[in-house]
Structure prediction request, 480 residues.
Amino acid sequence: MNTNPVHFTLNGKPVKISIEPWTTLLDYLRYHKKLVGTKKGCDHGQCGACTVLVDGNSVNSCLCLLVSLDGKDITTIEGIGTADNLSVEQQIFIEEDAYQCGFCTPGQICSTIAMRNRGEINSEEELKDWMSGNLCRCAAYKNLTKAARRIYKES
Amino acid sequence: MKPFQYTRLSTQDLASGTTLRDSTILAGGTNLIDLMKYGVEKPDRLADIGKLPYAQIEESDEGLLLGALVTNADTAYHSAVKKTYPLLHKAILSAASAQLRNRATNGGNLLQRTRCYYFYDTAMPCNKREPGSGCAAINGFNRIHAILGTSASCIATHPSDMCVALAALEAEVHVLRKGATLVIPFDQLHRLPGDHPEKDHNLEPGDLITHIQLPTEGFSDHFEYLKIRDRESYAFALISVAACLKVSEGKIEDIRVALGGVAHKPWKLKKVEKEMIGKVASTDNFQFFAERLIQGAQSFGTNDFKILLVKRAIVRALNSALNPS
Prediction:
């Protein structure tokens, strides 16, 4: 069988597996690990629904081969908070009513966390540009922007 | 995605060069994996270069050396890039989305492929994807296509914003070829389509981009990156202009202008730039320069608007560079 070894950390836990090299991070999360908080939207890096954190940076998991992430630290929405113990960012999304159907929300939250990690936002335009890689088909952009602004400034 | 063999390269592997010659190189993969999903790229072997030692940015007397594996985001936000090369900072951040910039590498940015719709659509003829099959864009919907340096075989554009800035700055590309480092002036990296649009660049199989050398002059006082696109963010350029000026007592001492969205490579003409040295930095002269820079432009129907638009964009970018707000 055509597999390759890869080691990484997933939501704080070390993982060591051998996997078919054409498996994307997204497919690994959803189909191998049943971590379905990360969504498959376009599967081409255009919608941002599959956004997760790799070493604290937001990336499109649909465009990453898992085998290419050797040694990386991967965090999905399941590693950010739980229903019983929401993260600060999740709490702000609820308070600001920053979602409608919720499909894009895990990716949106990962993008806000990466934006805060990077710390390079100096204007409203830059904030909107940073978040423009996450589409919301419900068009909840007004409150999404409010939540993103609060997360950047407050947490 | 078609199954393939995968190798994670180490520095030792590089010594032989064999793996690279027989493989498609994987770095960030943001373009390659997408093309593999569409069936446009169908490699039998991928060589992952992600662990090779080209992920640093180094400052020296010769300028700034950007590792090929540094991400576009880490490059744009690097303190020396922000301070000395704000043109490059602005160009990179005008491109793609935060997620893509966080993953895409500098070397990969240089080698990304056109976003011509017909190149992506495997049901359509495309000389770049399948040499000899024809070009569906020339008589098709060609809003995003080239107006300069086209051929009867291909009217695709190079999609990068970063490359337009690197062309204007006259960067150099360091390439590892058969164990030795080859230095390629940026203008000579990419090529016009001619009869071989399947070749985007002048690299050979087995070549590896290791670094991009920025010269000491960053034109940080007088620069502009103007990008015109269908939406304000996360879209490829219809037209982009990287403009750099050095002005003394109102006269042009140096001028660099590279265009994106108009050709198979960043479009820059040194000869036309030299003609401007010593002339007054004025709108009239910028208009003259724009006419000379796009001399011979030819449009294909849906992209007719680009000829007037690019002239206006050049003048606007140069005026912005001259009088930074």
User: Anything to note?
Assistant: Chain A has a mean pLDDT of 97. Strands of chain A lie at 4-10, 13-19, 51-54, 57-60, 73-75. Chain A has two domains: 4-79, 88-154. Residues 105-118 of chain A form the longest helix (14 residues).
